[in-house]
Amino acid sequence: MSERLHILVADDEPGMRMGVERALRDFSVRVNDVNEDVRFEVVQAASGEEALERIAERTPDILLLDHKMTGMTGLEVLERILAQQLDVLTIMITAYATLETAIGATKRGAYDFLAKPFTPQELKAAVRKAAVHVVLTRQARRLAQEKRQVRFQFISVLAHELKAPLAAIQGYLQILKDGSAGNNPAVIGHMIDRSLVRVDGMRKLILDLLDMTRIESGTRKRELVDLDLCDTARSAIETVGPDAASRKITVDLHAERGVPVHADRVEMEIILNNLVSNAVKYNRDGGRVDVTIEAAGGTARVTVTDTGIGLSQADADRLFQDFVRIKNDKTRNILGSGLGLSIVKKLATLYGGDAVVQSQEGMGSTFTVKLRQDGGAAAEAAGAEGQAANEAKAAGGSAVKAASAGGAAAEAV
Amino acid sequence: MTSDEKKTILLADDDVDYLLQTRVRLEGAGYAVIAVEGQAQAEKVLANTRPDLAVVDLMMEHTDAGFALCHHIKKKDPGIPVILVTGVASETGLEFDSSTREERSWVKADALLAKPVRFEQLQAQIEHLLKEKR
Asked: What pTM did the predictor assign?
């Protein structure tokens, strides 16, 4: 990608303006963090007054501003820019770089200084620094904006997901109250059952939401201990036992030996419980679930295979996103919050791994989650308390930090 | 109910709770109700049954399954009044109504109701259309 930044050079010496234009004509700056090449377009102004006119026509990205000009001085121009709250990065050009002028200009929002006389190299170094700052600041702002957008969307879908079961339950209660169902106990029983199913779905959604919030905000203190993933798998299998038994689904654990991981117990339970309960939920009656736990090269691998309804490639591609539930005839009566797999993926990523699905429609699905046995980034994050707070701070402060923090957040959501 | 025999209503909606609630209320109001969860089931019913009126949800198996179903009902028997229920207006801002003859011929529905539909509203619409037919 390449971007063109607009530079205004305001100086009453024609030679200086020409020199700047010539030096920057074929100059380009590489901004590695965003993988962008920046080139420059230079416009000249021979006085402070003219500089303000040019700025009014088009706000430059970077302003090279001579401190001492006949007529309006550089500091006055700077004041006007500040008053208008323009998004301009100013480099003051000063003949006598005294501490006093430096402080005065900084107070008025100058970003950097260039002492006259300067070499083309010095000019380029100053412009390079300013350009990188401009690009990264904008990038950070864009990411923050995207992040806000994703949040809004999440909240709006969430509100809908909470409203739907409430409306259904309200409808049933209303019918029971006004007696329009008559007194057929079968019909009344059915309506009560449906209400309970919807309450249950809502409860599950709220629990998943809490899990997700805890993972993302970092407010819950992560406690990394050495544990055996096979134990976690066994307890997940035990939990689904009654559901599996009632539908004659066999659930087996395959592990040759224990698989130790350095991880948070609750987070490992979330992963295994989600995978195993999904494998039962989306299975056919009399089907099978095979849970395999193994390790190689420092990576633990959890594979959960079911003989269920499976899903199409298009559906598989979006399965790990928030609130994605595959809607079709086979899934219509299966309840789910649409957050479970998205949580699994977030956790796997945190532990330096990944979560993927392979599936064949009508045949079944295989979910594979990989985790680094040493805990990966989760181990590092566990040490850094209040990480989320720091990220928030970085978004307003250093552009470089904000860009990377924003990137991580965008990925996480 | 002024008529001697019960009128039969075909009710198609993929929201099982809305379907059950509406069915129970319609039965309470004296109608016979055939409740189905989608276009495919509705077509099966239509193969050997002629309902007196149909209430069809727009988005079922596909986003426009309701349109297709309305079309099939009218093709089978233009005399069956159809009420198309849609969440489209509230969800997408897209609007249409069937107040003019021209629009009705395109949509193939005699009335459109926007979700959320109050039962009283639906009942009034049903009674109105059944009365027109008589």
From this structure: 0.63
